[in-house]
Design a protein that fits this description.
Helix content is about 40%, strand content about 20%. The protein is α+β, with helices and mostly antiparallel strands. It has two domains: about 80 residues, no CATH class; about 220 residues, 2-Layer Sandwich (BirA Bifunctional Protein, domain 2). A hairpin with a 2-residue loop joins strand 7 and strand 8. The chain binds 3,4-dihydroxyphenylalanine. 3,4-dihydroxyphenylalanine binds next to strand 8 and strand 9. 3,4-dihydroxyphenylalanine (DAH) binds next to strand 8 and strand 9.
């Protein structure tokens, strides 16, 4: 084949490819044209290229040069057509049913879980009363969960049926458990800091309760602790009253009932009266001198109060939630309401 014929065939091919690419209106059509002209195996360019073997030897360099030019221009034509199709159609350029004028699908804004919202609000209220936030681990040892809180070895609160112990007793060097109360953080803070102290701690606690409308094996507590010179029960009551009215509203009343906790003396149960009902929200009292001594404080020098309130109860009361399990089933139809 003469050089002239070879070039003629190439140019013809380039023209056909160019119009096939520019006439393509869909990606599939363009892809089919690409395979027809540029296909690696049976593409038409490949077939013409094969004819180069028949071009006289001395004209081969020129033939090769033309071949390369034509190949580049066909490829460029393809890329151009592709860009056109992708940019003027839907994202992929392939969906003829896409209607850019339809209203979009709105995305719902997420929100914090009601317990997280409650925790933030409680932290805020107590922050305004001068209490800062302290944290402690959820996996605790017996020292922090019991011993240093003046809970004797034979106390029923230590029972295996009342706690999630993590290592069988026989294998322990140090018995660990999921903390059953946030009072553990009191000890950790006092161990690390000299008085005066004014902290709250908010977090999860664990007890092997069967789940029902008011119990769950995991729940949250807000622990409060204030230690200073001459702190009295009046400070405890006024702090809790200010807290209750800030969280539930001015119409809330507060009541102390005598009780017992090993780590406070005297100890009280704390009830709030709201919407025609008294309801227990937790325990409180004056920090037991034994606890102060266990962290190296002098009970003759400083006194303190402590309290522990149930976060779920506060949240449920506030929002009228009747079943604690709803808070942890994570049904978005429920959670969206808060
Ligand atoms: N830790 C107690 C409980 O889980 C609640 C409690 C009572 C906390 C009295 C206190 C307190 O700080 O002084 O039942």
């Amino acid at each position: 084949m003469s050089l002239q014929d070879f070039c003629h065939q190439l140019n013809q091919l380039a023209e056909e490819a160019s119009s096939a690419f520019s006439n393509a209106t869909e990606i599939e059509e363009l892809e089919a044209a690409r395979i027809e002209f540029l296909g690696a195996k049976n593409g038409r360019l490949k077939s013409v290229q094969k004819l180069m073997g028949t071009v006289p030897k001395e004209e081969k360099p020129k033939a090769g040069q033309t071949l390369n030019q034509v190949k580049t221009s066909i490829q460029d034509g393809f890329e151009e057509a592709k860009t056109r199709l992708v940019s003027d159609g839907s994202e992929s350029g392939v969906d003829p049913t896409f209607d850019a004028t339809l209203p979009g699908l709105g995305r719902r804004l997420g929100r914090l879980h009601p317990i997280s919202q409650t925790i933030n609000e409680l932290t805020d209220i107590m922050g305004r009363l001068g209490f800062s936030l302290a944290v402690g681990p959820e996996i605790e040892d017996e020292h922090h969960n019991f011993n240093s809180l003046n809970i004797p070895n034979d106390h029923p609160a230590r029972d295996t049926l009342e706690n999630f112990y993590l290592v069988p007793e026989s294998e322990r060097t140090k018995q660990l458990l999921l903390r059953s109360q946030t009072s553990t953080v009191q000890v950790r803070v006092m161990d690390a800091t000299p008085p005066p102290i004014r902290i709250i701690s908010l977090g999860r606690v664990y007890r092997p309760d069967t789940a029902d409308a008011t119990h769950y094996p995991m729940f949250h507590q807000m622990e409060g602790l204030m230690v200073d010179q001459a702190v009295t029960m009046a400070d405890l009551k006024s702090t809790l009253r200010m807290f209750a009215t800030s969280y539930l509203g001015d119409e809330v009343s507060i009541r102390f009932r005598p009780s017992f906790f090993p780590f406070t003396e005297p100890s009280v149960e704390v009830d709030f009266y709201w919407n025609g009902q008294w309801m227990e929200f937790g325990g409180a009292g004056m920090v037991d001198p034994n606890v102060l001594r266990s962290v190296g404080y002098d009970p003759e020098e400083v006194t303190g109060f402590a309290f522990g309130l149930g976060v779920e109860r506060l949240c449920m009361r506030r929002y009228g939630i009747l079943d604690i399990r709803d808070l942890f089933t994570n049904d978005v139809r429920f959670l969206r309401q808060f």
